[in-house]
Specification:
Layout lengths: L1 H36 L1 H7 L4 H35 L31 H7 L4 H28 L5 H11 L6 H4 L1 H10 L5 E7 L4 H5 L6 E5 L2 E2 L3 H8 L7 E8 L2 E8 L5 E6 L4
Antiparallel strand pairs: 1-2, 1-6, 2-3, 2-4, 4-5
């Protein structure tokens, strides 16, 4: 029924358009006939000047052409209006249009963001401590913004001074470690998207690690009682203490924690940073 109604409306509008065009065409023909009846008068009036008669005929021809163009534009405009009103249903491959053929996609859900404090809490940090950590992190980030602003205004952006001050501000989060403890610090690193573990990528042959049974993919958790989060920290700890003294090295292997007592000094392992949920 809906398609029949659309077809009826379409035919009605087209009939109206055709009638309007017929009326306009009849008017134009009557006007032309009247003009032709005056032709002898025109000829008599301008018999002494044939050029004027030709000029007037050319002007009328140009006017008729303009009227024809106007009629064509009106037809195109009417067809566009009819199309917007839905009187020309899109039938696809010649099949009747129906509501069941119209497919609508569900609206894309708006992207949601988890606040920084929520990200810290998600790693297992208590809410109160997470708020404290985020306040300090915001302080460090604002400091970096002020450094960049001052450097831009004063003309020392991308200089050695700028790189030094920015690097210090970026590493300021390390000051939180003694304040919040190693466990929360490790979780904070994970929430910030930073590496928080040191993985053994490879074992050197005939090295201390090879002799004492360390393996590739072990995670170094502690060295001589101190937590290790970066390869730089481990390399610094290895150079401390008396050479050859036994130190406790705690590693995580799969789901187990293993303790190795190694002589201090080079271990003979190649390291790789790793980011893992604590």
């Amino acid at each position: 029924m809906k398609n029949e109604s659309l077809l009826f409306c379409r035919q009605s509008l087209l009939l109206i358009v055709v009638l309007c065009l017929g009326i306009l065409a009849g008017y134009y023909l009557l006007r032309s006939a009247a003009t032709d009846s005056d032709a002898p008068e025109v000829a008599r009036r301008y018999k002494d000047n044939p050029d004027d008669t030709l000029t007037r005929l050319q002007q009328r021809l140009a006017q008729a052409e303009q009227e024809r163009v106007w009629l064509v534009e009106r037809v195109v405009a009417l067809e566009a209006v009819i199309g917007k009103l839905g009187m020309y249903p899109d039938t696809g491959n010649g099949e009747p249009a129906s509501e069941t053929n119209v497919e609508t996609e569900p609206p894309t859900p708006a992207q949601t963001f988890r606040t920084s404090i929520e990200a810290l809490i998600a790693t297992g940090i208590p809410a109160e401590q997470a708020a404290l950590i985020q306040a300090r992190l915001d302080e460090y980030d604002l400091k970096k913004l002020h450094i960049k602003d001052s450097a831009s205004r004063e003309g020392w952006l991308k200089t050695a001074r700028y790189n030094k001050e920015l690097r210090q501000a970026q590493n300021a989060y390390q000051e939180l470690r003694p304040e919040i403890g190693d466990d929360a610090y490790e979780r904070m690193l994970y929430a910030l998207g930073r590496n928080n573990r040191v993985a053994v990528r490879d074992i050197m042959q005939n090295s201390t690690a090879d002799q004492y049974g360390l393996r590739a993919n072990d995670r170094v958790i502690e060295y001589d009682g101190q937590r290790v989060f970066t390869s730089q920290e481990l390399n610094a700890l290895v150079t401390q203490g008396a050479t050859g003294a036994l130190v406790l090295v705690r590693v995580q292997r799969d789901e187990q924690q293993l303790d190795f007592y190694l002589p201090s000094g080079p271990i003979g392992i190649r390291l790789a940073p790793s980011r893992e949920l604590p």
